Amino acid sequence: NRSLQCDSPAPSARSALKLNRHHVPSLCNLGLLLLSAGHPPRTVAPYFERALAADPAHVESLCNYGRLKQELGKHAESQPLFEAAARLQPDNVDALNGLGLVMEARATDRWQSLELGRHFDPEFDRMVSQADSYFTRALQVAPSHLDSVCNRAALLHAHRGEEGMGEAARLYRRVLDTDPTHAEAFYNLAFLRQQRMEVDEARVLYERAYELAPHRQQFRNALMQFSESKHAGDFVGGEEGDPVRSRHGAHASWNREMRRDEQRAAISSDADSSSSSSSSLDTEYHSA
């Protein structure tokens, strides 16, 4: 996950924890290592919890645990973690980015629950504006923070109409010009092109997202729409999975909340396929 960060390199975590089971930076890093090895988030969370029990002011652990909560769709639980990190470091980009995602999730929930397509709601508009202000502030601190660029683009794409879609397209391209391996930007730009009925362009962009992250179920689902895709053979005999709810206002087909749910499912699936090696790794760390 691009947004998860820590201040201790992975190789040093094992040695540090053998010397001190409560070494906070290594607990933080270990959580990230296990997550990247395919462990389900529920088995990773205790490492961040242990780190924060030892040092409640460890900003990296606050941000990483908050991000993990968001990956599980628990935005209400992530909010106090990011707020605590922001109080400690007001210009922390990960905290600002996390708070922007929290506010956007709250706005999306409000839209869906109140069926706001029929009327204007000031509170919804305030939440969207607050999310935008967090992303904008993060980019003022770190203009090259690509996750903040991509998240702001997705916000504008979802909630600011045709003008927002135009700005989002420009921002997605900015991300891809800087990092041609940013799968989420390819996916989001593909969806925008599909909304505009630019089907061939959308298919090519979806294919690129899938090539970069073939385990992501939402990328696979998107490509299943295109029988002419060069990857169509990858899905023969496969299952499409659960349908994805609307996220881009009242008219779209995908939703970032479901994207996170699907990412969690993909992580858990990867963990099942490598359970033997992962289990031995976890056992070794627990005995450290």
Describe the structure.
- It is a single chain.
- The protein is an all-alpha fold and 288 residues long.
- The protein is built from 14 helices and no strands.
- It has helices at residues 10-19, 24-36, 41-54, 59-71, 75-88, 93-114, 122-141, 146-159, 161-178, 183-195, 199-212, 217-223, 256-273, 275-286.
Task: Detail the topology: elements first, then pairings.
Layout: H1 10-19, H2 24-36, H3 41-54, H4 59-71, H5 75-88, H6 93-114, H7 122-141, H8 146-159, H9 161-178, H10 183-195, H11 199-212, H12 217-223, H13 256-273, H14 275-286
Describe the structure concisely for a colleague.
The protein has 288 residues and is mainly alpha-helical.
Using brief descriptors, characterize the structure shown:
14 helices, globular, disordered C terminus, mainly alpha, 288 residues
Gyration radius, rounded: 19 Å
Regions with pLDDT < 50 over 5+ consecutive residues?
Answer: 6-10, 13-20, 238-288
Largest sheet: none
How much of the sequence lies in strands comes to: under 5%
Structural class: mainly alpha
Estimated helix fraction: over 70%
Could you state the oligomeric state of the chains shown? single chain
Order of helices and strands: HHHHHHHHHHHHHH
- How many angstroms does the end-to-end distance come to? 25 Å
The total count of helices amounts to: 14
Provide mean pLDDT, rounded: 76
Morphology call: globular
